[in-house]
Amino acid sequence: MEIFFQQLVNGLTIGSIYALVALGYTMVYGVLKLINFAHGDLVALSAYIGLVIIMQLMGALSPTVLIIITFIATMIITAIGGVILERAAYRPLRKAPRLSAVVSALGASLIIENGIMLIWGPMPKIFPASVIPNANYSLHGVYISLMQVLVLIISLILMVALYLFVNRTKLGTAMRACAIDQDAARLMGINVDKVIVTTFVIGSALGAVGGLFIGMYYRGIYFNMGWIYGLNAFVAAIIGGIGNIPGAMLGGMLLGIFNAFIAGYVSSSWSLALTYVLLIVIMIFRPTGILGERVAEKV
Amino acid sequence: MKRKGLVGLLALVVTLLFTVSAFASGYIKIGVQAPITGKFASEGQSIDKAVRLVAKQVNEKGGILGRKIKVITCDDEGKAVKAAICARKLVDAGVIAVIGSYTSTCAEAAEPIYYRAGVLQTSDGTSDTLVKHGYWTFFRNSSPNSAEAQFTAEFFLKKQHYKRIAVISDYSTFSTNLAQAVIRDLKKMGGNVVYYGKIVSGSQNFTPILTKIKTYHPDVIYFSGYYTDGGLIRAQMVQLGMKADFVGGDSNDNPEFIKLAGKAAVGAYLIDVPLPNMLPYPAAKKFLKAFRETYHENPASIWTLFNVDGLRVILYAIQQTKSLNTRKIAHYLHYELKDFPGITGPISFAPNGERVGSAYMAYRIGPDLKYHIVYKEK
User: Fold this and answer.
1) What digits encode the pLDDT tens for the residues A205-228?
2) Cβ B201 vs Cβ B172: under 8 Å
3) I need a surface site. Which of A112, A144, B164, B302 has the fewest CB within 10 A?
4) At a CB cut-off of 8 Å and minimum separation 6, what does A100 contact?
5) Is residue A233 domain-resident?
6) Structure pTM?
7) Which residues of B touch A (CB under 8 A)?
8) Could you tell me if B187 and B214 lie in one domain?
9) Interface predicted TM-score (ipTM)
10) Closest residue of A to B229, CA-based?
11) Of A123, A143, A268, which is closest to B241 when you measure between CB atoms?
C-alpha cells in the first residue's frame, strides 16, 4: 500500500508541473485557437532566468525572501517575454491562415531554444542545492520532501486562484467571452487585444512557476528541456480537453499519475509508450478530452 | 589471381622500400595523427606534446639502436576524410609507426592505409570495431567497454558482495550495450540481477521507476547512462529513502554529477578509467612530473597517456627485437611482450591487437565530495 501512495506522490508532483505548463497551452488555445508551440521553451527560459536571479541574490537575502523575490521577478520577466512573443510572432498573423501561425509558433520555439543555448551554452546548468532546505518526511514508509510539498501546495493555490479569476472577475468573464466568439465579444465592447495580452501574461507567469519548480526540484536544467516538458504538458491539455482550464489541471495530474503507475505496476521501459496508448484510448471515446465540450462547427 | 599476386608483390616492395627509407634517413620517424585543431584540439595537442616529450627523453639518452627519433605530426581535425589524407602523408614521409588518432572514427579511417603500407599504428579509440578488421599493424591501447563490464561485475561480486542487483540504462546504444554486457558478466559469475529497466534520458522524473525498484529490495542500483540522469537518480534515491548503493558507469564521471546529486552524492560509487593524477604506477608519476616541468600544464586527459604508452611500448619492442622491421616488432608485441610497465598500468596485447586487461577503477565519493579509490584491477 505504501508503494501505491508513494507512486501517487511521485505522480502528483510531476503532474502539478505538467498542469501549470498545460494551463498556458490551453488558455491561449481557448482564446486564439492557436497551439503556442513556443510555450515549452518559454518555460525553459524562465528556469534560466530564475537561476540567474538566484545566483545574483544568494547570500544577500534570507532564503524565504530570496525564494519569494525569485518567483515574483521570474514570473514578471517571463510574462513580459510572453507578451513580446504574442506581439512579434502571433499578432501580425492573426488574420492569416491557421497554418501560418503554427509555423510562426514553431519558429519562435526554435529562436528561444537556440537563444538559450547561445547565451548559457549547451551544457546543463545546475541550481544550487541550498535554495530550498533539503528536508525529507516519512509517513508510514511514504517519503515526501519539503520541495514536493511546496510544489503541490503552490500549484493548488495558483490553480484555485486562476479558476476564481476566470469565473468571478470581469476580465475573466471577458476572457471566456472571447473564447466563445471574438467578434461578438468585440461588439459587446470588450477590448479583445487586451484580453489576449492578459491571457499570455497569465499563461507565461504560470509556466514560469512550472519552470522554477523544475529547476528547484530536479536542479538540472537544459536549453532544450522545453521540448520534453512542452510535449507532456500539451498532451495533458489535450487529455483534459484543450481550451478548458480545469481540464488542463486534471489532464496534468492524470498524466503524471498514469506515468507513475504504469512505471510502477506495468513496465518502466514502456511507461511513455503506454501513456500515449491511454491518451489515444481517451481520444477515441472522448475526442474533445475529458472535460472538453462538443463545439459546434462554425459554418 | 595473377592480379592479386601482383598487388601482393607491389605491397611487399612498397613495404620494403619504406623500411629501407626509414633506415637510410638516419632517423627513426614516428608519426602523430591527432586532432590538433577542431573540437578535440586540446586532446590532440596534448597527445602531440606527450609524444614529443618521450622522443626528446629518448634522444637525450642517445636514441634507439643508435638512431634519433624524429616526430612528424599530421592534423586530422577529428574528421575521417582528413584522417585518410594524414595517413598517406605520414606513410609517404616514411614513418615506421603512427600514434593516433584520438577518435575511433579517425583511427578506423586510417587503419587500412597503414596496414597496406606495413606501418604500425596504436590508438586509444574505444570502439570495438577497431580491432575487428584483422590488421596486424593495429594496436588498440585503451580500455574498451567490454572491459568495463567485466570490471564492474568483479567489483560487484568480489569486493562488494552484492546479493540483489538492479540495473538501469537509458535508450542509447552505448548505455544499453554497457548495461547488457554488465548483466551478462554478472550472470556468468553467478550474480543475482533482480531488475533491469530503462529510463528516457532527460526526463528528470525517475521516482516512479525507483519506487518500483524499491519493491525488489536491491542492495545496489547500477546505472550505465550519463551523469545528467545519474546525478538525479542518485538524488531521488535518497529522497525516496532508499538505502541501496548507487554505482554509475564511466559516463557518470563528471563534476556535474556531484553538483546535481548535491549531498546525496556522498557514498555513491563511480567506475571509470582513472584521472591522470590518480594513476598509482611509478612510470605514471615520473612521466607526469616531466610533462608538467616541460609544458607547465597537465595532460588533457587519461587518453593522452594511453597514446603515449603506445609509443613507449613500440620503442621498447624496437629495442628488444633490435629491428626496424614492423613485422618483427608487431610479432613481438602480439606474442612476446608481457606486462610492460606502462604509465596506464601493465601492458600486454592479444593477437588481435587488443590490449589485455584494463585500467578501470572504482571510486567512492566521500563526505569531502572527492573521489576515493576503493577497488582496482590486480
Assistant:
1) 999 999 999 999 988 898 889 988
2) yes
3) B164
4) A93
5) yes
6) 0.76
7) 197-200, 202-205, 207-209, 211-212, 214-215, 228, 231-232, 235, 238-241, 256, 259-260, 262-263
8) yes
9) 0.85
10) A220
11) A143
